[in-house]
């Protein structure tokens, strides 16, 4: 009997390892979803004079089987004021969506399970800087069991790049803060590979840089020296740094390979426009290698987001200034090959693939003071079909015309999943009451 249980557990683990992935930049500790997404949740920067002017969570319809909502705005939940809305992520049970502001370091928690078409703001954390002992700019929200890991970009002492990451429990109580090591003080993204017990973190710049207008920042030679150039490899369980990698040019988003035979990850550097492979070596250490240029580095296309397909074959790389996505075949991760290039808009930021790899979503805004101006200041979410060779437009929502603001990060929701969770919770209560 015991051997049968062991074999069953091993089989279940293997099936989970190769199951179709959730949107690939999400935490592996979250439930995996398959099938058609119903909603796109978009954390959106407010614009003064546009609608209510507030940062908000915007819910878009994504299921073609529901023509009343498909490609349309279903609802929005404003949080009041403008806080430099940027990133957000689901809790480990997907019932709550956490989102942060890079300027004043506030965090908002939305209940998306009770009514996924109309989430409810249930908690605001305005003590992040105090809780963490001085970390500023909550960026990545990465679900771990029972907790939310939140990376920072800066600190309250000098608003420079020295920073750390924090952990909160799912109820919103601060658990601990870990500061970045002295030889790699900058922070940005964090991704965990549980089967290796390794976490990778990347690096960007501090509050006094990312809140400046971009032309002014680019013209300040001294300020441009203060960008990160490292990635850190961590023992995840111990939360201890064990290796610092040199990755010049501000390495941003991190994407671990999903297949169990692949012990590597990708990142791109914003300032040097290169694609980097971070790969585990035979002795267990990691090595970072530049494996491709993103466009013409001399023109600084500014790669800002990447998304790796569930089968580890395609890497989508968005660059902001030229509004272009480049799709790489990374079947050989040491020699990526561009297989498709397409301009999505006059500016471009986030990219999110669906669980089945058949659809890709794009958003336009980078930072309020970094977005383009005038006619080039397009603000949109666009959906495309992907057949493995080309992108085909499905729908587009103009966030200016809708008076919503500047769309940034996108996350997916599925009504059936939330209903199943609610029903399961009700059944558990009924059993407990017997």
Descriptive report:
It is a single chain. The protein is mainly beta and 434 residues long. It has a single domain, classed as YVTN repeat-like/Quinoprotein amine dehydrogenase (Methylamine Dehydrogenase, Chain H, 7 Propeller). It has helices at residues 2-18, 128-132, 207-210, 214-218, 415-433, and strands at residues 39-45, 56-61, 73-78, 85-90, 96-101, 107-111, 120-125, 135-136, 141-144, 147-151, 154-155, 164-169, 174-179, 190-193, 198-201, 230-235, 240-246, 251-256, 264-269, 274-280, 286-293, 303-308, 314-319, 324-329, 337-343, 351-353, 359-363, 380-386, 391-398, 406-413. The strands form 8 sheets. A 4-stranded antiparallel sheet has the order 3-2-1-30. Strand 19 and strand 20 (274-280) form a beta hairpin. The longest helix has 19 residues, at 415-433. The radius of gyration is 21 Å and the shape is globular. The model is unreliable at 1-22 (pLDDT under 50).
Helix-strand layout with pairing:
Layout: H1 2-18, E1 39-45, E2 56-61, E3 73-78, E4 85-90, E5 96-101, E6 107-111, E7 120-125, H2 128-132, E8 135-136, E9 141-144, E10 147-151, E11 154-155, E12 164-169, E13 174-179, E14 190-193, E15 198-201, H3 207-210, H4 214-218, E16 230-235, E17 240-246, E18 251-256, E19 264-269, E20 274-280, E21 286-293, E22 303-308, E23 314-319, E24 324-329, E25 337-343, E26 351-353, E27 359-363, E28 380-386, E29 391-398, E30 406-413, H5 415-433
Percentage of residues in helical conformation = 10-25%
Shape, principal axes of CA atoms: globular
Provide the structure class. Answer: mainly beta
Numbering strands along the chain, what is their spatial order in the largest sheet? 3-2-1-30
Low-confidence segments, given as residue ranges, are 1-22
CATH C-level class is Mainly Beta
What about the largest sheet? Answer: 4 strands, antiparallel
CATH homologous superfamily placement: YVTN repeat-like/Quinoprotein amine dehydrogenase
Query: Between the first and last Cα atoms, what is the distance in angstroms?
Result: 29 Å
Q: Can you tell me the number of structural domains?
A: 1
- Arithmetic mean pLDDT: 92
Strand content: 35-45%
Any guess at the CATH architecture?
7 Propeller
CATH topology heading: Methylamine Dehydrogenase, Chain H
Rg is 21 Å
Work out the helix count. Answer: 5
């Amino acid at each position: 009997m015991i051997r049968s249980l062991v074999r069953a557990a091993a089989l279940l683990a293997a099936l989970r390892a190769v199951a179709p992935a959730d949107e690939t930049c999400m935490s592996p500790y979250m439930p995996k979803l398959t099938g058609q997404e119903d909603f796109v949740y978009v954390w959106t920067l407010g614009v003064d004079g546009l609608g209510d002017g507030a940062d908000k969570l915007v819910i878009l319809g994504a299921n073609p089987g529901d023509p009343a909502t498909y490609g349309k705005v279903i609802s929005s939940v404003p949080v009041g004021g403008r806080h430099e809305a940027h990133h957000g992520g689901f809790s480990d049970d997907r019932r709550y969506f956490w989102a942060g502001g890079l300027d004043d370091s506030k965090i908002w928690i939305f209940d998306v399970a009770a009514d996924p078409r109309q989430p409810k703001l249930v908690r605001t954390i305005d003590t992040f800087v105090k809780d963490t002992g001085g970390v500023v700019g909550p960026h990545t929200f990465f679900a771990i069991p029972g907790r939310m890991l939140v990376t920072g970009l800066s600190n309250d002492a000098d608003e420079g790049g020295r920073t750390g990451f924090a952990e909160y429990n799912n109820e919103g109580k601060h658990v601990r803060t870990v500061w970045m090591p002295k030889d790699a003080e900058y922070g940005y993204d964090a991704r965990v590979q549980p089967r290796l017990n390794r976490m990778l973190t990347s690096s960007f710049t501090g509050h006094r840089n990312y809140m400046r207008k971009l032309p002014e920042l680019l013209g300040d030679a001294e300020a441009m020296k203060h960008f990160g150039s490292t990635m850190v490899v961590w023992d995840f369980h111990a939360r201890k740094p064990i290796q610092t990698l040199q990755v010049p040019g501000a390495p941003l988003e991190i994407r671990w390979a999903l297949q169990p035979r692949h012990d590597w990850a990708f990142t791109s550097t914003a300032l040097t426009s290169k694609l980097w492979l971070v790969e585990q070596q035979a002795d267990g250490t990691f090595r970072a290698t530049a494996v491709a240029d993103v466009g013409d580095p001399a023109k600084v296309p500014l790669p800002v987001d990447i998304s790796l397909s569930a089968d580890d074959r395609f890497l989508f790389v968005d660059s902001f200034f030229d509004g272009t996505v480049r799709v790489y075949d990374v079947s050989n991760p040491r020699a990526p090959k561009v297989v498709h290039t397409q301009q999505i808009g006059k500016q471009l930021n986030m990219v999110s693939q669906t669980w089945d790899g058949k659809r890709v979503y794009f958003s336009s805004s980078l930072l309020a003071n970094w977005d383009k101006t005038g006619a080039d200041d397009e603000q949109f979410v666009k959906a495309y079909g992907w057949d493995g060779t080309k992108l085909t437009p499905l729908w587009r929502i103009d966030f200016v015309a809708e008076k919503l603001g500047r769309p940034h990060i996108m996350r997916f929701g599925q009504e059936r999943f939330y209903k199943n969770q609610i029903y399961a919770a009700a059944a558990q209560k009924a059993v407990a009451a017997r």
